[in-house]
Amino acid sequence: RVTGIDFLKRQNSQQHHTDAYNIKNLVVRRGQPFLVQVSLNRELRAADKLSLRFTIGENPMKNRGSLLSLKPEREDFNGWKISVVKKNGKEYLLSVTSSPNAPVGKYNLHVKTGANTYKPENGVIYLLFNPWCEDDAVYMANEAEKEEYVLNDTGSIYVGSAYSIYDRPWNFGQFEEFILDACMYLLDKSKLSLAERRDPAHVSRAMSALVNANDDNGVLLGNWSGNYISGTSPMDWIGSVMILQQYYKTKKPVRYGQCWVFAGVLNTVMRCLGVPCRCVSTFDSAHDTEENLTVDIYLNEKGEKLNSLSFDSVWNFHVWNDAWMKRTDMPNGFSGWQAIDSTPQEQSQGRFQCGPCPVKAVREGDVYLPYDAKFVYAEVNADRVYWVVKKVNGKDKYFKVGTETQAIGKNISTKAVGQNRREDITREYKYPEGSKEERMSMQRAYSFIRPSGLMPRSGYASTVRTLGGNTQPLVPKEPVTKTGLDIEITNTEPLHPGNPLEMAITVRISAPGTWTVNLTGSCQLQYYTGKVQANLGTIKETISLEGQSEMQVPLKIPPDAYMKTLSSVEDEVLILVTAIAEVKETNDKLTKETSMRFEYPPITVQMPETAKLYNDFNCAFIFKNKLNVTLENCKLLVEGLGIFKMTTFEQGDIMPGRIMKSEIICTPTRLGEKKIVAKLISNQIKGISTEKGIVIT
């Protein structure tokens, strides 16, 4: 009979890089040996039978591979191995190696000796993917990359706009209490077969579906309405931990998420299960509903963008994830990073899920490959076409005022390995604009997508004459103007809430001669999804330029034109400036738009650089309101993984010039480099955040 089992948790979890998981049970990675010490009531004799039985799922059976019976004398079973390392009287040290493509999940371990079965307490073993094992599909050779993409439980998600990118610190927290159990619950809920649980491609696709609540009661409910009264505003999260813990406790979708929240949570889930994963932000990302690779933007005669006519949209940024794996279900050359996206945008095979799509397939234009490559390709490669809607004899007519072929899918960004900085990975997703490879890739993609003739796709499109079937050039080129007309939009003063917004539109011409340019400019506030929230002001000017020259036209918005809107919205809004220039003499037209974010005073964190395990230290958060407006209903959210749980300080109103200071006593419970994240939200401002590192010795 067995009298006891020691899972040698400390030793095993160090070997398996699982010592950070906050859980009583043994957590190991597949394809790598772990040790168990079995104590018997007497020494084994030749006739004795001893077997370790691992079972997974509801009703385990040998022929399904859900029951594994490992006997020390018969070494191999379904790719699992067992051997006696050493015996010491009645103590037997056994080594168990799971198969490198074993189904991931929770296994029950029982020990059988003849007719007796011993069931140990905490006998559930968690088996994860193993990026350290060369035979595992998620194997990653580089040590620093595994440290970042599997073991780092903090990070940054890049947001803002292509003109002003900034990082939002995010706590992934894949090792925190209940997170692994929440991921196991999702695996069970996914109804993946045992065979599918072996494969990171199936698992990551299922997780991309389950992180959103659409069609399966998954983790997060998306909400882009601006009204979050019945839940938490997407801007108020600073990490995945509270979301997954609440979901695991209630088994009900958590309210509310937007794309960076979905990506942050999916990143936590994948890293927790052992699949290397990173958050990827694309600026000016196309959400194209008909796979025709163009996104139509409609402007009124004042140059203001209209919401109502567009079915497709350009988001200032969109965040998804890349998961690392070998793709065994397709030709060679498509392994490595795979795009997965849990933001519910479009159904794929009847569910809101997206990916895994090989990043190399997007770059090469192989958009027929599974999964959802056409969709991801369009997100980073569509063209933006501008139309002005004018009333002619009481009817709307559309006039094309510009096409941008290089405006979509810019500055594709992720956090750099081992450093707190942005790494630009655009080259992994696409060849340089205008290169020979890019043209070939585009021709390939177009041959699979076959866009219909270029024309606006709104409900009113019938007023436009259809273009002839063959007028679509295979690869659209930037329209070359006769005059070399160019527009640049900049801000001339820092964009502080409460101050006038001072911007400028610069018009350039490179051809000799005298030119008359009609310039229309508009300024609006918009959500990151491209939806316009308020019109702030417009300008219309006629300027003359001589030969090669440029002129700067100011665009100034007073504070009272926008502060009311800024205080009434629940989301962070961006400043959108659109300019249309038309050269009278040649009829050259050009349209440009730029989104900019407001600039805010910083939060400072004061604390020691190092601290000792279980020794308290003080941490202070200081914020000085350097703006000309009172910040109302301020809340400070702080969280430090392995140091303190998420805490909220209600700060009331902070007048201009006032200083706020909050203190918290911290007790570190884990060794290594830890981070403290802080975020300040108020009626006027949603996005001031900061992070600071501390080394625990």
UniProtKB/TrEMBL annotation:
Protein name per its UniProtKB record: protein-glutamine gamma-glutamyltransferase
Annotated active site: C259, H318, D341
Origin species: Ploceus nigricollis
The protein's Enzyme Commission number: 2.3.2.13
Known cofactor(s): Ca(2+)
SMART domains for the chain: TGc
Binding annotation for Ca(2+): N381, D383, E433, E438
One MF annotation (Gene Ontology) recorded for this entry: protein-glutamine gamma-glutamyltransferase activity
Residue ranges annotated for the Transglutaminase-like domain, each copy included: 251-344
Family recorded in the similarity comment: Belongs to the transglutaminase superfamily. Transglutaminase family.
Alphabetically ordered keywords of this record: Acyltransferase, Calcium, Metal-binding, Transferase
Binding note for cofactor: Binds 1 Ca(2+) ion per subunit.
